[in-house]
Amino acid sequence: RINAKAPLFDRRDALAAYEQQGHKCAVCGEVFEFDQMQADHIKPWSKGGRTVAENCQMLCKADNLKKGAM
Question: Are 30 and 24 spatial neighbours (Cβ–Cβ below 8 Å)?
């Protein structure tokens, strides 16, 4: 079985999500600088989620790591 990684969101989509969220992590609600966050698939790529702006949310690195471990 091949363990393929999800494609990355483009910077424009990540920045748009960051602005829409008011610079806050979608999980913990804390404010972060853009470079302290990661673009995340709302509907996981492994479950058919697409790498499009509508499926992008910004998470702090800690929450994105926690989500990935689930």
Answer: yes
Nearest-angstrom CA–CA distance, 50 and 42: 9
Q: Using CA of residue 38, residue 44, residue 46, residue 48, what is the dihedral sign?
A: negative
10 to each of 1, 28, 70, how far by Cα in Å?
A: 27, 23, 24
Report how far apart the first and last C-alpha atoms of the chain are (Å, whole number). 20
- Hey, what are 39's tokens? 């673009």
Q: Which helix (H) or strand (E) element contains residue 60?
A: strand 56-60
The sign one gets for the Cα dihedral 36, 38, 39, 43 is: negative
Tens digits of residue pLDDT in 26-55:
999 999 999 999 999 999 999 999 999 999
Listed residue (27, 20, 16, 21) closest to 64, CA to CA: 27
